[in-house]
Amino acid sequence: MSLSTSKAPIPLYTATTPNGWKVTIALEELRIPYELKPLNINAFPPLSINNHGDFPIFESGAILLWLGEHYDHKHKLWPTDPKLQSEVTQWIMFQMGGIGPMQGQAGHFQHTTPEVNKYGITCYTNETHCLYGVLKSCLANKDYLVNNQYSLADIINFSWVVVHRFAEIDISDLPNVQVWRKCILIHPAIPKAMCNPTSPMVKDILKKANVA
């Protein structure tokens, strides 16, 4: 994402991935104008953006924190209380350092050579399920992760949990995680955000959730 001093739409370089959805969901929820620039994450050399006085931000978690601190003036996704802000930040770090890498590896091994990588599949699938268990514990008596209010903490973790089937993560024993996932899926901003850019996988997810 690249920020400039003008009020023009924010240029967003992204792809159809959970990390990309985090940002498009937040932008749609906050109704921040943005210009989608589809990105080929396998291109070489990688895209370099740092010109004309722009302020580029990379890493989806860092982008969410910037949007919360500088754009969420009505505190729809970023709370006012410093302790609650810290809780949201903790969940952002939890996803960035936990669910994202572990589930990403589980999906990688599932879809490369599964017959060879049985250890990798078992290791990363089990670890991801354990991390989902942390979500389950937090959601035991509430609908959302922080202060029972929808926030960036939910968006960043949802963006990976929503594609749990791709990595073959079973959530049948995590009923409150299922409810939380479905609750976020019906937010009006979700279909548009997850379809920027679109993909057959996204269409299938939204269709199964009856929000397509």
TrEMBL record:
InterPro entries: Glutathione-S-Trfase_C-like, Glutathione-S-Trfase_C_sf, Glutathione_S-Trfase, Glutathione_S-Trfase_N, GST_C, Thioredoxin-like_sf. Gene3D superfamilies: 1.20.1050.10, Glutaredoxin (3.40.30.10). Keywords: Transferase. The keyword Transferase applies. The keyword Transferase applies. Belongs to the GST superfamily. This is Glutathione S-transferase. It comes from Dimargaris cristalligena.
